[in-house]
Design goal:
about 140 residues, 5-stranded antiparallel β-sheet, catalytic activity, HIT family protein
Length: about 140
């Protein structure tokens, strides 16, 4: 779909690409207020897990799990948050957010209050992506 921001994201933000799996794309979220915040989104424009057949659904969840596990190994968070909302962007996508007891919004949801975005400088962004890619290869 041309009007869907998730359908365009992989193509429009190549500097944030982490990996392409069989069923999903993985990108670093530009705002790194929450260190390691990563997006995993389906290649196909679907809005719900139940729109996928059982085999594909299982494979998608395994891809999400692989990314969450890699983020956990890199950042060692207190808790990994998995957000699958789609209210504002109706394309199946997960916000994987490593959370720490010392983050400013702990233990509240990341959406509980606005914050100033914290984009990484280009080199720091490339380094973070490199770390995640390496963790996914292990």
């Amino acid at each position: 779909m041309n009007d869907c921001p998730m359908c365009r994201r992989w193509r429009q933000e190549p500097d944030l690409r982490i990996v392409e799996f069989e069923h999903c794309y993985v990108t670093l979220n530009r705002d790194q207020f929450f260190r390691g915040y990563t997006l995993v989104f389906s290649k196909d424009h679907v809005t719900e897990l139940f729109h996928l057949d059982a085999v594909t659904r299982g494979a998608v969840l395994e891809e999400v799990n692989r990314v969450a596990e890699a983020l956990a190994r890199i950042f060692n968070p207190t808790k990994m948050n998995y957000e699958l909302l789609g209210n504002m962007v109706p394309h199946m996508h997960w916000h994987l957010v490593p959370r720490f007891v010392d983050d400013p919004l702990w233990p509240r949801p990341i959406w509980s209050e606005p914050h100033d975005e914290q984009p990484l400088a280009s080199e720091a962004c490339r380094e973070r992506i490199r770390l995640i890619r390496e963790a996914l290869e292990d």
